[in-house]
Design a protein that fits this description.
There is one protein chain. By secondary structure, this protein is an alpha/beta fold. Helices cover 32% and strands 24% of the residues. The chain contains ten helices and 16 strands. A hairpin with a 4-residue loop joins strand 2 (37-41) and strand 3. It is elongated and about 65 Å long.
Length: 363
């Protein structure tokens, strides 16, 4: 969603009218989760997706009608014998999509500013139009009524606390208990800062890993104590390239590490990898992996124990790093590492989908 919001802000600032289509609800094997959005500009440009391509043409046609003056609408698409190849979801799921024009009253600038500052924020949009932004204890925008705003803020804060997006029904008593805000359905879209990918060891394997991590929406940092390796031109997709001892750099940023952070240690040198791994395994990082052979792994475990690492911390270590894809070379190794990071973050099994029962897309 980050690139969708960035484009929406740019169009809003430039005075370009556009419609936004957003997934409200899903059933079965839906391609995208609630909150996924697609923009249709008045000039015909399209950004984002609500179905991975299945119903985008139909969404565009309705968006053009909305921009021509039609009312906001909620549409549902599913798979059926007659529409599977026309405007249906061939993957077998069903999605419900809100299509509305986003006007200048919707505080998209606030959403973009909070995202840039690393502050979680939610955008609340009624089906009929308007909107407000909630995050960091402040509210920007209005739904046109103080009671409705209070109800919307409560609904948004509950969703934002779970980093969830979707449709909610709001309607609460006023602060003095004398009146109630009328119930209405609201779309809440939660936005959180980019997950971090911290790569220690700027060897050849780090280059494609940085690129794939950036393409998947991570804020990528590469750190190596060797200046010749930690050269920014070697990592054009990285947000930060640092020449420093990995453990020393990690200590300065440890308070910024959270459950969405992935730490990949590719140094192949126990003088560098053991100190930073000891710190990372004690941190809040959701994923900690280290490259090396099984022999290197066993030696690394002994050194971590000697350095005082607890068994519960050592059990968190993903080493040798990555899923078994049978790949070769830096690029395919990078794919296996990112595949494991995704599986750990999303709770995936890492098994082929042919062996996994149930829906293909989990939302």
């Amino acid at each position: 969603m980050r690139h969708v919001i960035d484009q929406a802000v740019a169009w809003q600032r430039s005075g370009i009218r556009f419609a936004m289509a957003t997934v409200l609800r899903t059933w079965g094997s839906a391609p995208h989760a609630p909150g996924a959005s697609m923009l249709v500009g008045e000039d015909g440009r399209i950004v984002g997706s609500v179905s991975g391509g299945c119903v985008e043409s139909a969404v565009c046609a309705i968006a053009e009608e909305v921009l021509a003056g039609a009312a906001p609408t909620v549409e549902r698409w599913g798979v059926g014998d007659e529409d599977a190849f026309e405007a249906g979801l061939t993957c077998g799921g069903t999605i419900e999509v809100l299509i509305r024009e986003v006007g200048p009253e919707v505080p998209l600038d606030r959403i973009a500013a909070d995202l840039a500052a690393g502050v979680p924020v939610a955008l609340v949009t009624p089906v009929g139009g308007g909107g407000l932004a909630v995050g960091g204890g402040t509210v920007t925008g209005s739904l046109g009524d103080p009671q409705a705003d209070r109800a919307a803020v409560q609904a948004a804060e509950g969703m934002l606390g779970r980093a969830a997006s979707g449709l909610v029904t709001s309607g609460n008593a006023a602060a003095d208990g004398t009146a109630c805000a009328p119930e209405r359905e609201l779309l809440v879209q939660s936005f959180a800062p980019q997950p971090q990918l911290l790569i220690f060891g700027a060897a050849e394997f780090a280059r494609p890993l940085a690129g794939i991590g950036a393409a998947l929406g991570h804020r990528v940092m590469v750190c190596d104590a060797r200046p010749a390796f930690a050269a920014p031109e070697r990592f054009p997709m990285a947000d930060e390239v640092v020449t420093d001892r990995p453990d020393r750099w990690f200590r300065t940023r440890e308070d910024l590490v959270d459950a969405t952070t992935a730490v990949c240690v590719l140094t192949h040198d126990h003088r560098f990898d053991v100190p930073v791994l000891a710190l990372a395994l004690r941190s809040r990082a959701g994923y900690v992996g280290a490259m090396g052979s099984r022999r290197t792994h066993e030696d690394r475990l002994a050194r971590l124990r000697a350095a005082g690492a607890a068994e519960a911390e050592i059990a968190r270590l993903r080493s040798p790093i990555g899923l078994d894809l049978g790949g070769r070379g830096p690029e395919e190794t990078a794919v296996s590492i990112m595949a494991e990071i995704i599986a750990v973050r999303r709770g995936g099994s890492g098994l082929p989908l042919t062996l996994r029962p149930g829906p293909v897309h989990i939302v």
